Amino acid sequence: MIDESGERFSGAQAIKAIACMQERENGLGGGFAGYGIYPRFKDHNVFHLLYDDEKAKESTEQYLEENYSIEKDGPIPTRKQTGVRNPPILWRYFLGIKKGAHDEASQEDFVVKTVMKINGEIDGAFVISSGKNMGIFKGVGFSGEIGKFFKLEDYKGYAWTAHGRFPTNTVGWWGGSHPFGLLDWSVIHNGEISSYGINKRYLENFGYHCTLFTDTEVITYLFDLLARKQGFGFDVIGRILAAPFWDEIDRLPENQREICKALRMTYGSALVNGPFATIIGRTGAIVGINDRIKLRPLVAARKDSVLYLSSEESGIRRVCESPDKVWMPEAGEPVVGQLEGAHG
Amino acid sequence: MVKSSPPSGFLIDRDDERCIRCQACVRMCSNDVHAYDPEEDIIVSDSSKCVGCHFCEAICPTSALTVRHNPSQYRENFNWASEVINDIKTQAGSGGVILTGMGCDKPYPIYWDHIVLNASQVTNPSIDPLREPMELETFIGRKPDKIEIENFAEPKLATEISPQLELKTPIMFSAMSYGSISYNASLALARAASEFGTFWNTGEGGLHKDFYRYGPHTVVQVASGRFGVTREYLNVGGAIEIKIGQGAKPGIGGHLPGEKVTGPISETRMIPEGTDALSPAPHHDIYSIEDLRQLIYALKEATRYEKPVGVKIAAVHNVAPIASGIVRAGADFVAIDGIRGGTGAAPKVIRDNVGIPIEMAIAVVDSRLREEGIRNQASIIAAGGFKKSSDVIKAIALGADAVYIATAALVAMGCTICQKCYTGKCNWGIATQDPYLTKRLNPEIATRRLKNLLKAWSLEIKEMMGGMGINAIESLRGNREQLRGVGLNEVELKMLGIKPAGEAW
Amino acid sequence: MKKIRIREQYCMGCRLCEIYCAVQHSKSKDLVKAYRGEYPKPVPRILVEEKEYLSFAIQCRHCEDAPCISACMTGAMRRDPESGAVLCDEEKCVGCWMCIMVCPFGVIGRGREKKIISKCDLCLGEEEPACVKNCPNEALVLEEE
Fold first, then answer.
1. What is the spatial distance between Cα C61 and Cα C82, in angstroms, rounded to a whole number?
2. Which residues, in sequence order, are CB contacts of A293 under 8 Å at separation 6+?
C-alpha cells in the first residue's frame, strides 16, 4: 500500500493485512519493505545485513570501510517471537560514499557492485536491502510474527509491502524470503517463472548475476535493468514483462502496434512467462503487475489518496473497511501508485 | 581373381498368390528391376538392381511386394562390416570416390535423444494450447540493443529496426537446389512455405522464373558457384543467404552432373546445357573474414538494405569463433548445418566423417555470442537432421531462433532415404530431372503434405510448450533450464550447458 | 453435370486406373479374385494412352452432343436424366457396334461375355468413380463441369 499524498503510516497496518492471509503461507518465510522510514537519513544508503557469525560481520565492515563512511550503525531492533527461531545477526548501517571511491558511471551502479560483492564473496553475509530511506525486514517464520519480531509498528512510512511465503524452488532461509531488494527496489512475488532460464541468461549479458535461484531475484534485476538503465516507464515495462498477444497487437493502432512489435522482438528474452502476481516498490512508487494470462490473483483498491494491492481482497478490507473502488487489474497492465509530483 | 561386384543390399519378395500381373511395378521402376515374362506369365525381379526406394511396394495394388534386406551376408564382423567390405570392392573396381546422397547415417550419438523436457506441475500450471493462445511467431534478423520511444503524449517508435523475416512457426525449409531436386519438388516447397507463413530456400541452383511470385517467402542463396545470381534474383527474395558450407560436406563444393543440367536448369543456373555444374570449394572471392564482410555489404547495397543478409556455415570444430566473426562481419542471421545434414550428392567418406553434431554447435554458438554481448545482432538458424518436433523444441531451448528442415520435407513428399539421389533416377520424382519421373510428384499433393507436416509439428510444439507453462516461444529460446540430460557425461552436459536429469533449479 | 477431368501432367502411366476400373465392373469386385480366377477376365473401360513421357487415361467423355446416342439403332444408348451420363441399356444392346465406329475418342469397347458394348458408366451408385478414387497421383478428378 502507498499513500500518494506522502503521509506516513505505521507498519502495524502492513502486519495486520498480511497476517489475515496466513493460510497462504507455510511459515518458511515472511517479509516487509517500508519506504520513507528513515527520514533523518534520507540521503544515506541504508544497508540491512544479516550475518551468520561475527567473523562475517567483521569482514563485511572491513570491506565497507574501504569505500564508505559509516555514519551510524547498530542492530536492527527486534523482539522475541516463538515462531521466529535462531535469527542471524541483524545489523544496519547508514552509509555515505567516500569521495573518489568509485569511477563507475553512477553511484547506483557502484552500490549494486558492492552488494553483489558482499553477497557473492563474503561467506555468511547477505545484504537484505541497500536503498535510501527504505528498508527490508524479512526472515524465516510466519509473516505476522516476522512483522512483530522487527517491531514494525514503531516505523512509519508512506509505502509498505508485505509477503508471506510458501517456498517452492529453494529451501526457506532468511535471505530467501521476500521482498528481494536491490538499491531501493523491493520485490514481492507470488508465482513461478517458466522463462527463468532465459531471463537469467539475458540479465547476465548486462552484468547481473543471479545467485539465489529465485524468481524474485530475476524480476528485481529485470526492473532495475529496464527502468533504471534503459529508462523505460512502468507501462512500457509492463508491455515487455507481460507482453500482449500477437492478435491483440494486430488490433492496435499503427504507432502502438509498431512499438509493441519492436519491444517483443528486442526484449523477447525479458518476457516473463508463467504465473505471477508481483508488487514492486521503489522510492516514490509501488507497482503491481500480473502475468499475461492472469494465473495468480491480484486485487487493487483505492481510498482517498491510498492505493492498495493485494493477493486477496480480504487483506485490503482488514485495513480499509470501505474502499472507494476495488478492481482486478488487467493481465499485463501495471497498476501504479506514485507520490504526487514523482514520475515513473 | 574373379571380378566381383558387391551384392545389392535388397531382396524383392513377391507373394505370387497376390500378384495379379498388372505390371505397374515393371512400368514404374526406374532401375528396371522388374520384368514381365509373357511366356510364363510371371514377373521376374532382378534384386541386384534394387536400390530400396520402395516405390514398387507402394504402388502395388495388392500389396504383393516386400522389399527387404538381402539375407546374403558376410560372416558377422563388428570391425569389417558389410558396408566396409562392399565399399572397398567397389573402389577396387572403379578407382573412384564413392558417392552417396542424403545425410550421415553412422551411429554417432544423437544428442536430441539424450535430452528431455520439463513439464509444469503443482507449483506452476501448464497451459492448454487448444484453449489458450500459444505463440510461435518468430522473427529472423538483426535486433537492436535497445528501443527508444519518443513523445510521451503520443508514443512513437524512434528506433529503426533492421529488416526481419516473419515466421508463423520456427520451422523453415532448408536449401535444396533446383537441379538436385525437380521443378515440382521446388514448387511444392515454395507454395507450402508461402501458404503456411514460413520460408523456403533456393539452394545454389538459382530461382526459376516461375517461382518469382513466391519471392517474398524465399531465401535466395548466393553460393560459391554464384549460379543464377543476378540483381533481379537478389531483389526478388525475402532474404539472402551466403552459403559458405553445408553440414553434409563441409569444406568441399557441390557437383551437379551434366546429365541433370537440362534446359530449364541450364537457364536458371546460367550455364550451358550438359555441362557439369561445379561449385568451387571456397568462394573464390572470400579467402578471409574481411572478404566475407565485403560481400555481405555488397549484397546489402545491391538490395538497398531492405532484406536480411545472412551466412550459412557447416558445424565444424571452430564453429563458435567462426559464428562470432560472421556476426561481427554484419550478418543478420547465421545458419549452422550439422553433420547430419543432407545432400543430393557428396563423397560418402566426407559426409560421414566431417563436421560436428548440430546440438553441440547450437549450444556453443549461442553461449559464445551471449558472452560477447552480441547475441541480439543475428538470429541463429539450426539445420542438420531434424526429425521430429521435439528436436525442434530442444534446439530452440538450447538457443536457436529457428530450425531448417530438408530431409524431413522430402520424406513428407515421398522420399524413403535410399541415398541414391546422385543417380538422378529418383522414382518418387523428387531428386531427378527425368520427365518420366518428375510427373510422379504432383505438386498439389506435395504442397498439401508439406503444410500438414508443418501444421502437425507446430501443434506438437505448442503442446510441449504448454506443458512447460510457456505461452510465447521467446520465453523458450535459450531457456536451457527446461532441458535435462540423460545418459550424458559431465563434459557433454557442460558443452550443452544443461543439467543432468534429477537436478532441480 | 459431374465429369472426370484428365490432368495429363500428373499421369505417371502406372495403369492402376485400368486395374481398378476392371475390378469395379467384375463379378467378385475383389482385386486378387477378379484377376486370378474370374472368367472372362475383367476388362477396363478406361485406357491409358502413352507417347514418350506423355501419358494420360481416357474414358467416355459423356459428350453433350453424343454421336453414339444418335448412332444407336435400338435406343439402348441413352442419357441418364439425373446424372447426365451416357449409359448403355444392356438388355437393348444388340452388339451392332455402330457406337464404337462413331465415337470420336475411341473409348467404347466390345463386351467379352455377351455381344454388347463396354464403356465408362461413371460408377454411378458408388461414392466416386473407381479410377478417380484410386489414381495414386490425383491425375483424374471428378468435377462439376
1. 16
2. A331, B127, B132, B133, B471
Is the bond preceding B125 in cis, omega lying within 30 degrees of 0? no
In order, the DSSP letters of A128-155 are EE--BSEEEEEESS-HHHHHHHTTGGG-
Same domain, B311 and B416: yes
Using DSSP's 3-state secondary structure scheme, residue C122 falls into coil
- The structure's pTM equals 0.91
CA distances from B395 to B170, B241, B321 (A): 10, 21, 20
- What are the structural domains of chain C? 1-59+121-145 (3.30.70.20), 64-119 (3.30.70.20)
CATH number at residue B278: 3.20.20.70
Q: C81: how many CB neighbours lie within 10 A of its CB?
A: 7
Judge: A198–B157 Cβ closer than 8 Å, yes or no.
no
The per-residue pLDDT for range C37-47, each reduced to its tens digit, is 888 788 899 99
| Each residue's pLDDT tens digit, B238-247 | 999 999 999 9
* Residue among B154, B165, B379, B479 with most chain A CBs within 10 A, to mutate: B479
Classify domain A2-338 by CATH architecture.
4-Layer Sandwich (3.60)
Kindly give, in sequence order, each residue whose CB lies less than 8 Å from that of residue A23, ignoring residues fewer than 6 positions away: none
Which residues of chain B does C136 touch, with a Cβ-Cβ cutoff of 8 Å?
58-59
Which one of B96, B128, B143 terminates a domain?
B96
Q: Do A194 and B137 touch (CB under 8 A)?
A: no
- Grid coordinates representing B190 are 515454395
3-class secondary structure, C25: coil
What region, left, alpha or beta, does residue B123 occupy, with left being phi > 0 and alpha being psi -120 to 50 degrees?
A: alpha
A225-237 per-position pLDDT tens digit: 999 889 898 889 9
Angle at A150 between CA A145 and CA A151, to 5 degrees: 95
Spell out the residues 6+ positions from residue A35 whose beta carbon is closer than 8 angstroms to its own: A2, A133, A134, A157, A158, A159, A160, A184, A281, A283, A284
Interchain contact, B61 vs C134, CB within 8 Å: yes
Residue A343 has pLDDT above 70, yes or no: no
B59 touches chain C (CB under 8 A): yes
Q: Tens of pLDDT along B57-77? A: 999 999 999 999 987 788 888
CB A83 within 8 A of CB A52: no
Other C-beta atoms closer than 10 Å to the C-beta of B309 total 26
Q: Are A278 and A310 in contact (CB under 8 A)?
A: no
Domain that holds residue B67: 10-96
Sequence-distant (6+) residues with CB within 8 A of A201 are: A269, B370, B478, B479, B480
Kindly give the interhelix angle for A234-241 and A215-223, rounded to the nearest 10 degrees. 140
Q: How many Cβ atoms from other residues are within 10 Å of residue A55's Cβ?
A: 13
* Selection from A269, A124, A261 nearest residue A205 by Cα: A269
pLDDT category at A344 given cuts 50, 70, 90 is very low
The pLDDT, as a whole number, for residue A169 is 65
Q: Which residue of B has its CA nearest to A259?
A: B157
Give the helix ranges, DSSP H, for chain C.
16-24, 31-36, 67-71, 98-102, 130-134
